[in-house]
């Protein structure tokens, strides 16, 4: 079972970026934990972060070629305006979970809108970096259930 973890713009700054909103964990803490969590559940997880919309689109296309079966994505600011990411995710028809560290609904009005949510298998927000854990666990369960 292959899972891809994607993180969008500015998430490379986690740990130092507005820690009152995003916490103190770094992206590499999250990625390292995700890899070991997936492997302990019998899945294989790869990860990618980019500040560039096109690079994320390319990585999503590559996911289909690589046989990725589920994507966990924190699209960051692209959530709120990227038609290209939406089209890439629906284009490869790989189920995905949208995750946000902060509760976007408790923030600025324009963060309430997502171009991805209605196409996502599920959306997690406001649970901090625990959201990544929950999303990965769901993906593994979902892929196992599909197998049977
Ligand atoms: C975010 C929320 C977005 O609104 C913001 O642009 C981000 C991070 C989150 O994880 O809470 O960069 O996706």
Please, could you describe this protein's structure?
With 148 residues, the chain is of the alpha/beta class. It has a single domain, classed as 3-Layer(aba) Sandwich (Rossmann fold). It has five helices and five strands, in the order βααβαβαββα. Strands 2-1-3-4-5 form a five-stranded parallel beta sheet, sandwiched between helices. Helix 4 links the parallel strand 3 (70-74) and strand 4 (96-100). The longest helix has 18 residues, at 130-147. It is globular and about 40 Å long. The two termini are 13 Å apart. 1,3,4-trihydroxy-5-OXO-cyclohexanecarboxylic acid binds next to loops. Is involved in the catabolism of quinate. Allows the utilization of quinate as carbon source via the beta-ketoadipate pathway. InterPro entries: DHquinase_II, DHquinase_II_CS, DHquinase_II_sf. Pfam families: DHquinase_II. It catalyses: 3-dehydroquinate = 3-dehydroshikimate + H2O. Pathway: Aromatic compound metabolism; 3,4-dihydroxybenzoate biosynthesis; 3,4-dihydroxybenzoate from 3-dehydroquinate: step 1/2.
Topology summary:
Blueprint: E1 2-7, H1 19-22, H2 27-40, E2 44-49, H3 53-66, E3 70-74, H4 83-92, E4 96-100, E5 122-125, H5 130-147
Parallel strand pairs: 1-2, 1-3, 3-4, 4-5
Helix pairs in contact: 2-5, 3-4
Bound molecules: 1,3,4-trihydroxy-5-OXO-cyclohexanecarboxylic acid.
1,3,4-trihydroxy-5-OXO-cyclohexanecarboxylic acid is lined by residues 10, 74, 76-77, 79, 100-102, 104, 111.
Helix-strand pattern, N to C?
EHHEHEHEEH
Instruction: Provide the residue-averaged pLDDT.
Output: 97
What is the helix tally? 5
Residue runs with pLDDT of under 50 for 5 or more positions: none
The CATH class is Alpha Beta
CATH superfamily: Dehydroquinase, class II
